[in-house]
């Protein structure tokens, strides 16, 4: 049972990762991302998730410095973009990300998408970075079961995390089950479906019952499914509100009601066709 914003899950290599963090996709570089990250850290968040593709790593780095929180208390994730995949280019992309962030190591480095014919070479680069102690954990994003099976045939190190689109309209049951069997931690991006669920009647009824917002109910549902989650927000009050989910627990019946909203509906691209 996750009881606070600082609670962690232990990845299969022993590294502890917070269950809850701030995502910064589509948060503008400069003042906007600096303020969002600083607000989150001030509110008790310890995990920040960015990516080279988001073009805001510099701002995230500035906010980390200005937060006054010791680096080792934070968990920082970034990702290698599709254009940079391949062995040497991934190693260079990692260095570039680290420079932009102003850090000397990362907590988690992820392959952003399974680029066909490239992701195995990319993974070899991540294994190298991991063995060299430059990153504490490595993983993937948007990998279906068949991508993971393919990767595991040649991988020396199993991914610690798979970050994918996950919300009540896309519950990814087969993938979640596979990741659990493989001891790969499942992580949700776009847990709130970019606001697309905030007028759902079933969720509204459940939210009213617990005296919580729909967003809080969805994020609590994530945690009770043992899914790491990183909702994005730029507004301080919303950042605080999103994290106010540790003082209630959804009943099994309500969990099942939310599960039943699944329609295998994506708001992002399908990894097989992207």
TrEMBL record:
Superkingdom of origin organism: Bacteria
Keyword Oxidoreductase belongs to the record: yes
Location of the NADP-dependent oxidoreductase domain: 26-262
Entry-linked InterPro entries: AKR, AKR5G, Aldo/ket_reductase_CS, NAD(P)_OxRdtase_dom_sf, NADP_OxRdtase_dom
Keywords assigned by UniProt, alphabetized: NADP, Oxidoreductase
Pfam (any one): Aldo_ket_red
Protein name, as recorded: Aldo/keto reductase
Organism annotation: Aeribacillus composti
């Amino acid at each position: 049972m996750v009881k606070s914003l600082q609670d962690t899950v232990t990845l299969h290599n022993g590294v502890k990762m917070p269950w809850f963090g701030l995502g910064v996709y589509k948060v503008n570089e400069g003042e906007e991302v600096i303020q969002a990250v600083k607000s989150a850290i001030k509110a008790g968040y310890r995990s920040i998730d960015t990516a080279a593709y988001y073009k805001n790593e510099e701002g995230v780095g500035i906010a980390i410095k200005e937060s006054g929180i010791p680096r080792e208390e934070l968990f920082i994730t970034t990702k290698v973009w599709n254009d940079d995949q391949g062995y040497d280019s991934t190693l260079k992309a990692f260095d570039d990300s680290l420079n932009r962030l102003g850090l000397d190591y990362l907590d988690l480095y992820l392959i952003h998408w399974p680029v066909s014919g490239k992701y195995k070479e990319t993974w070899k680069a991540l294994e190298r970075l991991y063995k060299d102690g430059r990153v504490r954990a490595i993983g993937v994003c948007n990998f279906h079961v068949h991508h993971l099976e393919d990767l595991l045939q040649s991988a020396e190190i199993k991914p610690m995390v798979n970050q994918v689109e996950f919300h009540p309209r896309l519950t990814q049951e087969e993938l979640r089950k596979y990741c659990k069997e493989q001891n790969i931690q499942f992580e949700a991006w776009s847990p709130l479906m970019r606001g697309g669920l905030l007028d759902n009647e079933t969720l509204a009824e459940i939210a009213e019952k617990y005296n919580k917002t729909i967003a809080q109910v969805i994020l609590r549902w994530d945690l009770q499914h043992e899914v790491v989650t990183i909702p994005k927000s730029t507004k301080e009050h919303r950042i605080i509100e999103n994290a106010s989910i540790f003082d209630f627990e959804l009943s099994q019946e309500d969990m099942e009601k939310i599960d039943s909203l699944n329609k295998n509906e994506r708001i992002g691209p399908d990894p097989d066709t992207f």
